[in-house]
Amino acid sequence: MEYKIYRIADRTQIDQCELFAINQYLWNSLQTPKAYGRAGYIDGQGIYVEMTCEECDPKRLCNKDKELVYKDSALEAFFAFPEGDMSIEKQCIYINFEMNANGALYAEKGYTRENRTLISDVYYQEAECRAKIESDRWCVSVLIPEALLGEITSLEKLKSGQRFYCNFYKISEDDKIQHFGCYSPIESEEPNFHLPICFAKAVIADV
Question: Are the beta carbons of 132 and 192 closer than 8 angstroms?
Answer without folding.
Answer: no
